[in-house]
Amino acid sequence: MSAFSRNLCSTASRTLRQRSAISCRAVRPIALRAVSTTPITTRAAVTAPFSTMSSLRSAAPPVASKREYDQEIKDVASYVHSTPIDSELAFDTARWVFIDTLGCGLKALEFEQCRNILGPVVEGTVVPNGAKVPGTNYQLDPVLGAFNIGAMIRWLDFNDCWLAAEWGHPSDNLGAILATADWISRTNRAGGKLGNGKILKVRDVLEAMIRAHEIQGCMALENSFNKVGLDHVVLVKVASTAVVAKMLGLNEAQTRDAVSQAWCDGQSMRTYRHSPNTMSRKSWAAGDACEKAVNLCLKVLRGEGGMPTVLSAPTWGFYDVNFGGKPFQFQRPYGSYVMENVLFKVSYPAEFHSQTAVEAAQRLNKKLKAMGKTAADIDSVVNRTHEACIRIIDKQFKPMENFADRDHCVQYMVATMFVFNRLEATDYPDDSEAATSQLVESLRQRISCVEDPQFTKDYHDPEKRTISNALTVKLKDGTVLEEEVVEAPLGHRLRREEAKPEILAKFKRHLGPHFPAEHVDKLVKLGQDGKTLDAMDVDQYVDLYVKN
User: Fold this and answer.
1) Residue 160: count of CB within 10 angstroms of its CB
2) Which pLDDT score is estimated for 523?
3) Quick count: other Cβ atoms within 10 Å of Cβ 333?
4) What is the Cα–Cα distance from 43 to 20, expressed in whole angstroms?
5) In whole angstroms, what is the distance from residue 189 CA to residue 539 CA?
6) Which residue in 266, 338, 345, 473 could disulfide with 481, CB within 3.0 to 4.6 Å?
7) What is the distance between the alpha carbons of residues 219 and 450, in angstroms, rounded to a whole number?
8) Tens digit of pLDDT for each residue in 432-466?
9) Buried b (16+ CB within 10 A) or exposed e, 535-547
10) pLDDT tens per residue, range 205-252
């Protein structure tokens, strides 16, 4: 029975376990034993060398565990190893996600704070046949390579997005996937036998991305980790662990072991995303999850086992320790739904719940200009929005202390658009024009948010998944502009075809500062040629992004 089906009877089974546990605590009478007449035989003392180390082997023979793995873990492992991906829509979307995500990583390299955390632990280290980091000359072991690529991808909050009971960015998994695929391919090209000796193709990377998106996204549909204080990167770690396990040649049982290790691993708290502790760790938390995922898979590859009931074990399992004793709920079985419906961040490098608000502000700027008005004429703005926007990025009166505060404040992003008619990554640093603008700061504190329950309902509706914001502007002369409503951002499935030219233009912009124009054109052309791209050896494709 799958975890999806098991939800129907989980409540009943938990009640039975509780009743059983209560009955087992009943006091038992003490049985008295007659005095034995059998003579006692004394044993000679056995002299053993003193040791502070406990015995490595029990006196009792080992007993093979008969425990079944938690169904949730079995379902993930079965999906990775046994469910074919035959959706061409999913593969087509994955190609767009692939090039968009690489471009976001390259853009992040323009920021010193990101560059400072990248590279080998020991300066100058080059790992033979190691994973190469796009946009740099680093060649690292796959564990550190996964961190480097994962941190680059997430740094600017500009890659794809998935919004449900839990929020997240499924393309974060590319950090683990690409580093592992590149290392495997380079090693096997040199005569190694990793992952059954195969040199992986880009198509293999795309398939792994589809599966990682699906695992992370399906778990996020009904399970809110943020409401128990945990960060969404726990799902990056679990999804990356599952797909990397298969890439490394682990069988289904070993994949279960690896996934159980990911659930047991210490989970990141969300505190670095929220006031008063908002800081740059939120930009490399996904890289950290990718790093741990690869590391755990390599441990299992070397013989480490797993924990069958790591989720459901009473007292010590994930559910009781971290999830209020509640088992996961599932809306749908694993397939390719998430990749097919993932959201692209096309227009603005901003937390996704703000995308439609910023687009509404940009539209309103045209109306203001036609009226001969500017941001200086605005008295106040009301943003009719959804619950998640208020919970995550409504910071009307909170001081903006750093980059991380600004790109997670809907008021700052909307105010910047009103004042400068733009929102770019360069608008977030402390010394930026927007961050030092008195008008931006004044307007920011005059933008309020109010929840519309229908917007919240549509946000969770599987058939819609809209991220609606609606701005009403009141001018200082008393004029109230007609409300500007934007329900689906440009990167939404409902606007996918409209978005593709913009995604490609975004990719080209991100390549520009790193490579000559002719090389940029080559990468852009290759990104649009699905047949050629799919067939490329992944290490040879990565080489196209390496700097000497």
Assistant:
1) 25
2) 98
3) 15
4) 43
5) 9
6) 473
7) 29
8) 999 999 999 999 999 999 999 999 999 988 888 89
9) ebbbbebbeebee
10) 999 999 999 999 999 999 999 999 999 999 999 999 999 999 999 999
Rg of the chain over all Cα atoms, to the nearest angstrom: 27
- Contact criterion met (CB below 8 Å) for 294 and 112: no
Q: What are phi and psi of 328, to 5 degrees?
A: -65, 150
Nearest 5°: phi and psi at 201? -100, 165
Measure the CA–CA gap between 97 and 344, rounded to whole angstroms.
8
pLDDT of 313-366, one tens digit each? 999 999 999 999 999 999 999 999 999 999 998 888 888 899 999 999 999 999
Structure tokens at 527: 């990104």
Reduce the DSSP state of residue 90 to 3 states and report it. Answer: helix
3-class secondary-structure state, position 421: coil
Q: CB 513: neighbour CB atoms within 10 A?
A: 12
* 450 to 146, 164, 364: CA distances (angstroms): 40, 20, 19
Please give the helix or strand (H or E) that residue 504 lies within, else none.
helix 496-511
The type of residue at 303 is: G
Cα–Cα distance measured from residue 159 to residue 103, given in angstroms and rounded to the nearest whole number:
9
Q: Which two tokens stand for residue 252?
A: 């289904």
Rounded to 5 degrees, φ, ψ at 424 are -130, 165
Strand partners, 162: 168
What is the residue whose two structure tokens read 């960015």?
A: 169
**Residue 54 CB burial class (10 angstroms; 0-12, 13-18, ≥19):** exposed
Quote the pTM value: 0.79
